[in-house]
Amino acid sequence: MTSRSEPAFLHSLGSELVEHRQWADRVVVLAYATVTGLAVVGFTLLSELASHAAATVRAIGSVGLWAMLVWTPALTVAILWWTRRFAPGTAGSGIPQVVRALDEVEGSVARRVLVSPRVAIEKICLVSGGLLAGLSIGREGPTVQVGAGIMVHARHWLSPRSRIDEHDLMVAGAAAGIAAAFNTPLGGIVFALEQLTRRRGIVHSTLVIAAIVLAGLVAVAVFGNETYFGRLGVQSLSWSMLGPGLLVALVCGVAGGLFARLLVTSARGGAGRLDAWRRAHPFRFAAACAAAVAVIGLVTAGQTAGAGYAPTRALLEGQSDMPGIYTLLKFCATWLSAWTGVPAGVFAPSLAIGAGIGHDVATWTGVGREAAIPLIALGMVGFLAASTQGPITAFIIVMEMVAGQSMVLSLMACAMVSAGVSRLLSPPMYNELASLLVPPEPRPPAPQQPADAQTVARP
Length: 459
Hints:
Blueprint: H1 2-18, H2 20-58, H3 62-86, H4 95-103, H5 109-114, H6 117-133, H7 140-152, H8 166-182, H9 185-196, H10 205-223, H11 242-268, H12 273-280, H13 282-299, H14 309-316, H15 325-339, H16 347-365, H17 369-388, H18 391-402, H19 408-423, H20 429-436, H21 451-454
Helix pairs in contact: 2-6, 2-7, 2-8, 2-10, 3-6, 3-13, 4-20, 6-7, 7-8, 8-9, 8-10, 9-18, 11-15, 11-16, 11-17, 11-19, 11-20, 12-13, 13-15, 14-16, 15-16, 16-17, 17-18, 17-19, 18-19
């Protein structure tokens, strides 16, 4: 048996060594994965700088808080104008754009408008501008479009015979982006399989894994190998917490389904007065929504601004007692921020809303501070699963974020229940938003003038 297997092994090894162009293609893909990691790092630093600048203005005192009532609408209108004028493919969270691009024909005009390196750069700048304005948005969802836009450009440098197509490159880039943004490598893989790929499986699964590893290594080299919300030592739920845990799952399912339905309905529009006003005066409408977000930020002393990382981290560490109205106001601020039409991610704000729901249920049921932490984690996974209707992605990402391996079954059950309730209220949000995107029509070629018309009669 050994003598028969050796020639086959040597033949396979020789084929691999001879196919140097195939190795060159792999190097190209890995190089772009590294660039994706660098882009995520740059996006993170720029967005944190923008959020810190907005917080600095609010920290001035009452003057700073009231100044946001002017600053937020003014900057939001400027971002919307730039988006509509120069970067229409960046509007929204970015995940629906990638979903739509995956459905388009390879090399189509729509795909190039929705996913490209230029769109990735514009997305980074515009989302950071929204955080600077104090809107309730996140960068993690837009990172999906950034990663896909960078990785898809690798196709220009691959050999014509390469079996790596644009679909697999976009999926790999999107997965690498979400994994590097949250430091959740398993979550990135599952997100790609559950939300993005339209095939039975990813043809080049090693491509996705390699892209995630390299992009993740770049992010870890800069920020360290820390979980998104630290290592909190979340304990597993006991049977005495079955009632509160089930209540969290149901409330998150209803709230997440309503949230997804609101976002889809707002994007679709209708015959109402608000929709008519938005179509006739988009900038005035955006200014009004941004002003409402600024008022909410004024009421909450800026806690509803941005992605909500700091309030969520404080809740998980048991160091903050949020008022019951925080969850509702964060819900409204995130919806209004998305309704303005600017590039805005809702992935991370969904975690903040879910954490607020878990904290509120813990308060209503009278559980102790230590027992409230698992309920907060359940709220995060429940609302994320309900709003995105991706239960597997939700529980894996949250598990990696809070180092909650001991809560795997609890997180999984909460995600499944919340997503099931959400399906009764709303269709899958990202697929619906992707179907509403209108791909641009290719420009018709300039008409050819006859030769007689090109001649100019001399006087």
